[in-house]
Amino acid sequence: DVQLQASGGGLVRPGGSLTLSCAASGFPFDTYAMKWVRQAPGKGPELVSTISSVGRITTYADSVKGRFTISRDNAKNTPFLQMNSLRPEDTAVYYCAQNLGSIRGQGTQVTVSS
Questions:
Q1: Cα 103 → chain centroid
Q2: Exposed, middle or buried, 50 (CB in 10 Å: 0-12/13-18/19+)?
Q3: Which pairing describes strands 58-60 and 108-112: parallel, antiparallel, or unpaired?
Q4: What is the DSSP letter of 91?
Q5: Minimal CA–CA distance to 9: which of 92, 114, 75?
Q6: What percent of the chain has pLDDT over 90?
Q7: C-alpha distance across the termini of the chain, in Å
Q8: pLDDT in tens, 63-109
Q9: Of the N and C termini of the chain, which has fewer Cβ atoms inside 10 Å?
Q10: Phi/psi of residue 49, each to 5°?
Q11: How many Å apart are CA 84 and CA 69, to the nearest integer?
């Protein structure tokens, strides 16, 4: 049974940083590309970033390029999202998922506010 539980969110001031992580289990993690998706209140899901199975290929939404960094530790079945220079418009619930899979599991709330 695929389980994905994101954590590491919180309240941060504009310009601050957070690192999200995601506990993945129930599938062979090191063979799956992964993604981070966010959903702001009243808006649809937005693809934030993807990473290939061994981490060599990454992609970013234009809105986060240069500020966010995706990575993964296959030994720990964990993808990460390092978020720097956070802006109020980054406020959303963040989810991790298999790149070709639907959003499932628990997201983590990120709120950027002064």
A1: 11
A2: buried
A3: unpaired
A4: -
A5: 92
A6: 92
A7: 40
A8: 999 999 999 999 999 999 999 999 999 999 999 999 998 888 889 99
A9: N
A10: -165, 155
A11: 8
The Cα-based distances of 42 to 21, 31, 35, 53, 56 in angstroms read 24, 34, 21, 32, 34
Strand-by-strand arrangement of the 45-51 sheet: 10-12, 108-112, 92-98, 34-39, 45-51, 58-60
Q: How far is CA 75 from CA 6, 29, 43, 64, 78, in A?
A: 17, 9, 35, 27, 8
Token reading at 43: 């808006």
Distance separating alpha carbons of residues 105 and 3, to the nearest angstrom: 6
pLDDT in tens, 1-13: 899 999 999 999 9
Q: Tokens 């808006």 appear where?
A: 43
- CB count in 10 Å sphere of residue 31: 9
Tokens, residue 9: 């969110």
